């Protein structure tokens, strides 16, 4: 699971994880079905397993705001203002990324052309944290 946690920016399938396990463990590697059940057992509600672009069993980890903020505070305060700024920006990015991954989407519904052209309708597809960031950026540009 360390391999997956280190590569969670990429879309990883359970098959890819099983292939990695085979390369390490050989015949003792889990089957795809058993590995999937172990992953669900290990991560619980923090893992989403879906089909994306024809790829089956694509895994996505969703991190909670609590775990992200815990990591931020655990790092300790730096004397260097620039380092603190970078840590804060990275934490904000992780929070927004987590919200994007956690956003529930309807895989059957695809918006029509009027919805896509409508700024108002598009807001419904954004997590609140990303919408807030975009609003703050837009407000700043007006000055």
Number of structural domains: 2
Number of strands: 3
Question: Distance N terminus to C terminus?
Answer: 47 Å
The whole-number mean of residue pLDDT values reads 81
Classify the secondary structure makeup into a structural class.
mainly alpha
Describe this structure in words.
The structure is a single chain. With 143 residues, the chain is mainly alpha-helical. It has 2 domains: 1-61; 63-143, no CATH class. Helix content is 59%, strand content 10%. The protein has helices at residues 2-6, 14-25, 32-43, 65-74, 81-102, 113-117, 119-123, 128-141; strands at residues 12-13, 47-52, 55-61. Strands 1-3-2 form a 3-stranded antiparallel β-sheet. A hairpin with a 2-residue loop joins strand 2 and strand 3 (55-61). Helix 4 (65-74) runs antiparallel to helix 5 (81-102). The model has no long low-confidence stretch (mean pLDDT 81).
Summarize this structure briefly:
This protein is mainly α and 143 residues long. The protein has 8 helices and 3 strands; from the N terminus they run H-E-H-H-E-E-H-H-H-H-H.
What's the helix and strand layout?
Elements: H1 2-6, E1 12-13, H2 14-25, H3 32-43, E2 47-52, E3 55-61, H4 65-74, H5 81-102, H6 113-117, H7 119-123, H8 128-141
Antiparallel strand pairs: 1-3, 2-3
Characteristic key phrases:
single chain, 143 residues, mainly alpha, 2 domains, three-stranded antiparallel β-sheet, 3 strands, 59% helix, flat
């Amino acid at each position: 699971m360390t391999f997956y946690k280190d590569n969670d920016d990429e879309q990883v399938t359970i098959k890819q994880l099983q292939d990695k396990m085979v390369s390490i463990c050989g015949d003792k590697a889990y089957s795809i079905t058993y590995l999937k059940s172990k992953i669900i057992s290990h991560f619980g509600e923090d893992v989403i397993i879906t089909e994306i672009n024809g790829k089956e069993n694509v895994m996505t980890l969703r991190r909670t705001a609590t775990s992200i903020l815990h990591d931020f505070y655990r790092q300790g305060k730096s004397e260097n203002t620039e380092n603190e700024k970078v840590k804060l920006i990275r934490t904000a990015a992780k929070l927004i990324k987590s919200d994007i991954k956690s956003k529930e989407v309807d895989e059957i519904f695809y918006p029509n052309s009027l919805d896509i052209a409508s700024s108002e309708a598009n807001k419904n597809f954004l997590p609140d944290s990303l919408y807030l960031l975009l609003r703050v950026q837009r407000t700043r540009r007006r000055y």
